[in-house]
Amino acid sequence: MSVENTISVLLSLITLLDAPENRARLMKDRSLAIELCQIIHRTGLTHSSIEVLLLAADVLRLVIEGAREQLHAAMQAKIKELAPDESSTESAPAAAIAAVQTLGEGGPTGDLPPGKSVVFACLEACVWLAARRTPALAPAGRARPAAQRRATGPKGDALLVKSLAAVALLPTLTSPHGALSILPTILYLATEVLRESKESSTVADAGILLLQSGAECRAVSLHDHTREHHARLLHSALAKLVERVKSDDPEQRIDPITGARAMAVLLNNAEPVAPLHYPCINHFRHLIISASELAPDESSSESAPAAAIAAVQTLGEGGPTGDLPPGKSVVFACLEACVWLAARRTPALAPAGRARPAAQRRATGPKGDALLVKSALSILPTILYLATEVLRESKESSTVADAGILLLQSGAECRAVSLHDHTREHHARLLHSALAKLVERVKSDDPEQRIDPITGARAMAVLLNNAEPVAPLHYPCINHFRQCLETSDNEEFKTMMQQSAELRNKLECALKANQANTRINKAQAQRPVFDAKPAKPTIQLKTDFSDFR
């Protein structure tokens, strides 16, 4: 069949299957759906036209969508049978949910026999379509697509993305045991795609999303033994990533940034084990710190740290005690690395007692500001010290000042500390300490230590909006606001006050109270020592001694 005729047939299939009722008719006879997947598989093997391959991937997606719709309808019917009062799987009893989940392909055994399983047929077709972009994905022992027929360029990347997106949907068609049958293939495909993604960020993103779908598979969480098996699979994939990022073979090595993103996905969904957890910690730390030591004009000094920081932003650590032990915590490693990254723009932020970045290699200008912004916004919200130091260094850059204000705001508005009284009290003490530091800095006579008055007022406003005022700190802030209002160059401060009605009301009330208090003190100072004459004594003493009779 010619390419034109093949394209016409595929377009007709897409038009038909785009209607839900036609997808339902297809799935009534599962053997017909399996045969369609096998036809798509053969089309991927025999045609080199990228347009044909992209349309074939679209047909597969519609077949998978039809299978999902059929499974959802079957689950709803089963729920009505087992729990008539419930309308969804979320509110159904646990026993009913367990019974409903076995309706997926694989059942209680997890078998997905070739020729009888829609999931297996779709997986096989998707793998071969992906192999047209990345021949290394072809199953071992099978003939791989010829190199000259490889789909390259943006359309080749689009083919790989569509194929992997279809694979990521397959666990939703299976039972818990059926999901365990295909997860090894999914994780293998993800790691291989990451290895082949050195020259394409699009391919790397597709691999990360596929890895995430395998790591977050919900079906396997219903039973203890399936959860344990899933955890072992994730640990195996994590071990492969650690091995690949350290490999000396250029063909096997995974890009460090891509590897960090993949590690973050797996660490967020599997219990850590020491032999795998520590290498990941070291990889995050070394990646960011080594990038921060590069020359400012090197592109990786900006992109690599920011990407690595983004990779760990979703990692939640710290148990009931809040411990983040050095050398054992990914968050602590990222925190340490972020401080060093910020020190590339502002050397004063380097930890005390440690060598600071060389002055001649300091990152300056817009790129340096962007570097500091990315690192500052990624530090844990309670690190208010970093915010005040960033504000001190922001005299010539509004971008850096905004970064410091946002960091200060994230620390001041931290919701996690509001759950317990002792954490709220500790948070309040931290905010008061930061406010005291701001008051000291805006009044400092040292140009190196002084914070710009307007920047200081903005920072004070953030803290006063989130902390109970205390007199020794409240009144200095009021005086500073008054001075800002009295200066000629106060448009930014006035704009800030206009945008915050709550802060404006607080300031007005505080000024009135302060003025009233001043008048009272002044009146008391002008009063005489004795307000009135002493009262006349009731006993009159004799004061005239002229008559001694």
What does this structure look like?
It is a single chain. The chain is 64% helix and 0% strand. The protein is an all-alpha fold and 549 residues long. Among the domains are: 207 residues, no CATH class; 103 residues, no CATH class. Helix 2 crosses helix 4 and helix 9 runs parallel beside helix 11. The N and C termini lie far apart (155 Å). About 7% of the residues have low confidence.
Q: What brief labels describe this structure?
A:
64% helix; 549 residues; mainly alpha
How many strands?
A: 0
Distance between the termini: 155 Å
Assembly classification: single chain
Give the fraction of residues assigned to helices: 55-70%
CA-atom Rg in angstroms: 34 Å
The ordered string of helix (H) and strand (E) elements is: HHHHHHHHHHHHHHHHHHHHHH
Class derived from helix and strand content: mainly alpha
Characterize the biggest β-sheet.
Answer: none
CA-based shape: elongated
Mean pLDDT: 75
Counting DSSP H or I runs of 4 or more residues, the number of helices is: 22
Spans of at least 5 consecutive residues whose pLDDT stays below 50 are: 294-302, 316-324, 353-362, 371-382
The share of residues in extended strands comes to under 5%
